Amino acid sequence: EPTVRTELMEQIPPIAIFLQESRPKFPTAFFEYLMPIVVRYLTDVNNQVRKAGQEALLILLEQDLVAQSDIENKVCPILLDLSAPDSDDEYKVEAVNIICKMASMLSRTTVEHMLLPRFCELCSDGKLFQVRKICAANFGDICNAVGQEATERLLIPKFFELCSDSVWGMRKACAECFMAVSYTTSPEVRRSKLSPLFISLISDTCRWVRQAAFQSLGPFISTFANPSSAGLYIREDGTLSIRPPAQDVNSNSCQPGNNITVMSSSANAA
């Protein structure tokens, strides 16, 4: 019964945490018995069971309970199979969604070598706009997961494609994550490539795209600021925040002109 399998999946994370805490007594129980079940249920015929399996997998990854070898030898191969060009549409959409969500929980090397090539392929999926939409919505997270070099070499060309996609929802998603993408690149790429691209979005024929671009304008401009002087930084959840001044603003040791931007930003935040 699918309901039984779904219920089983919901119990996997707490059982795994218990086994981890009692590891001297059960050193291999999770890897031998539970992990194979989670991997198998990612391809279950019932979508509710698959969804429960995906949620369980994310919790296990977030709690750092899955061994690196299992990630590379069991989890990633399954997701690559499910997201292959000839895969079933429903399975492909689910696979790209889980790939995007788990990217921030894996090592940069694993993401870059095992998942990034497939993500780049999915960005150009001509069959399912839902796949491209998921890629666009999570683009900033993938950039953050792989770092500047891979972003500029492999992801920026795909970002250009998505920003000019015929489906306006794709362009809107790109506008919404523009700051996160810009934050991962060098100042030169921001100036020479991303600025003209942003202008195209802010001048888009669709008003929903233009509105999203205008809402991202301030955050995008903030990525040009020097974090050490402006006090702006990106939190782990992708939101823009203001770092408090490193020195007491009333300190006599402050040099004239230092921390001006930081103090004014802090005042505005207050």
TrEMBL record:
The keyword S-adenosyl-L-methionine does not apply. Signal peptide: none annotated. GO terms for molecular function: protein phosphatase regulator activity. Transmembrane segments: none annotated. GO terms for cellular component: cytoplasm. InterPro entries: ARM-like, ARM-type_fold, HEAT, HEAT_type_2, PP2A_Regulatory_Subunit_A. HEAT repeats lie at residues 115-154. Keywords: Repeat. It holds the Pfam family HEAT. It comes from the Eukaryota. The keyword Ligase does not apply. This is PP4R1 phosphatase. It comes from Hylia prasina (green hylia).
